[in-house]
Amino acid sequence: MSSLGRASALLGAGTLVSRVTGLVRTIVLLAAIGSFGRPGDAFGVANQLPNNVFTIIQTGILTAVIIPQIVKAGAHKDGGRAYISKLFTIGTVVFLAATVVAMVAAPWLVAFYGPKFTPDQQALATAFAYWCLPQIFFYGLYALIGETLNAKRVFGPYTWAPIANNIVSIAGFLIFIALFGSDRNQVGGWTPTMIALLAGTATLGIALQAALLLFSWRRTGLRLRADFQWRGVGLRAVGRLAGWTFLMVIAGQIAGWVQTAVVGEASGENPSVIFMQAAWLVFMLPYSIFAISIGTPYFTQIAEHAAENRDAEVRGDVARCIRVISLFVVGSGIALAVAAVPATRIFTASAEQALQAAPVLICYLVGLLPLALLFIVQRAFYAYGDTRTPFYFTLVQVALIIVLSLIAGALAPKEQLAAAIALGQSVAGVVQTIVAIWILRNRLGGLEIPRTLLSLLRFTVAAIPAGFAGWGAYLLLGAENGWIVGNTGSNFVDRILGAVGTGVIGLVSVIVYVIVLLLLRAPELSAATRMLRRFLPGR
Predict the structure, then answer these.
(1) Are 227 and 248 within one domain?
(2) Under a CB-based contact definition with an 8 Å cutoff, are residues 387 and 245 in contact?
(3) Gap between the Cα atoms of 292 and 8, Å rounded
(4) For the chain, what is the radius of gyration of the CA atoms?
């Protein structure tokens, strides 16, 4: 268990730094192009295209299928070298082909994701897309190398490499602001040089993060070579497994397309595509820091236990992981919710925009805990080579997202359309997670549900006074009229004050949360404390 603690701490530290620098990256990006405006939404769609493909590659194939296969290949006499060489050769060919096809189809892809865009906005998005789509190739290599490192228990580099990407992007976006000014939220006036600098910077950062992983490869003890003899790599078996996850992720992409197409109607003066991406980034902070950093090492262990048919150990792994993740996610989620206004002020140009945008973040946070629990539950199915069942319960989520997004598009006013779509996604996630846990419980013959529900009850009880304390801090600091949303006249200073206000309110909420858990003598605090100690120098 100590090795899992060290791995989780390493991933948590890397994820924290990565997400914070990613947050700064988004702040600088939105300072350059504006958080409410057609150019920002055009860039948001263009830059999301390679991310969509990356999601298909990582979640649909690598995480679900490749890690368990690499773990099994490690038992071969050569430690899996031949299998992984074939795998890398296949992957490189597929990533390159996907990049070429996407670039040829760029105008149609933009029109598909931005049907509500004006013609000049679509033209700008297409220009951005030509510079952004090469990210597909580098994202694919980054995911393949990183997931292989994880399977070989080399956990750190995959998490730390994105920091370099963020630093490169921040520098490039600052250069853009220095050369062309900030808040360029009008479609007219964008030159090829401006487009190349903004979108090219984003692609350069992705290429660098993929290259950096190569320096950690020797720690796997494997030597790679190009191998086009793909017979014997088990493509047919992998294809059967990947087929279901591929369909699952495609279904998720369809839901994402519906959301983007519907919210595009609000583009211009209201929160839309680019701001939903920014709010999602803030939402993902606690998810990434806690769910991914804790769950990823557990997934490797679960895959090992599942390969040996040790169901009792898998049950214990999943239940413990759920309880520890929930402890952190509930506390951080309530802290972000009560600090939503200053948190969104970091991305917006005024206090009025922050008040309009805060509901988007709050509606996303409704689904934070279910999404965190789903991370480990879904991977428990993957560990057994079952990718069909996750496809079925994901269809439930996708259907709900599509229906609720269309209802939001028909009923919600434009200024709250993004929030309504975010709430629909959270509701769909709650239903999906409940269904997934119920199915996994039946399959494993139990998941320590009574003990887990008792833990969740403790966390909820602690979250209530924590939320009131944070809200009280928000009111004492002046709420929407206070310094925490910035009224200095300097947009840069106001964003900094928003970040400080978020930290103060969040800290008050977290302190109260921990105090109440101590009073309740929550046993999960001991495991959490041991894990946090791993972050200390010398540990």
Answers:
(1) no
(2) yes
(3) 9
(4) 23
For residues 293 and 383, what is the distance between their CA atoms, to the nearest angstrom?
A: 18
233, 252, 282: which is the final residue of a domain?
A: 233
Q: What are phi and psi of 264, to 5 degrees?
A: -60, -20
How much of the chain exceeds pLDDT 90, in percent? 35
Over residues 506-521, the pLDDT tens digits come to: 999 999 999 999 999 8
Domain coverage including residue 411: 243-533
- 426 & 488 share domain: yes
| Length of the chain in terms of residues written | 539
Q: How far is it, in rounded angstroms, from Cα 343 to Cα 503? A: 9
- pLDDT recorded at residue 72: 64
**Could you tell me if 201 and 250 lie in one domain?**
no
Same domain, 190 and 293: no
Same domain for 398 and 491, yes or no, is yes
Gap between the Cα atoms of 110 and 105, Å rounded: 9
> Which among 321, 262, 334 has a CA at the least distance from the CA of 295?
321
Same domain for 274 and 144, yes or no, is: no
Residue 539 lies in a domain: no
Does 9 fall in a domain?
Answer: yes
Which phi and psi angles does 31 have, rounded to 5°?
-65, -30
The count of domains in the chain is 2
The more confidently predicted of residues 220 and 499 is: 499
**Domain co-membership, 229 together with 308:** no
SS3 content of the chain, % helix, strand, coil (to 5): 85, 0, 15
CA distance 51 to 71: 27
List C-alpha distances in Å: 43 to 79, 88, 471.
Answer: 44, 31, 35
CB 382 within 8 A of CB 64: yes
Contact between 337 and 471 (Cβ < 8 Å): no
Place of tokens 């993004």: 418
pTM for this one? 0.79
- Read off the pLDDT of residues 330-367 as tens digits, 9 standing for 90 and up: 999 999 999 999 999 888 878 888 888 899 999 999 99
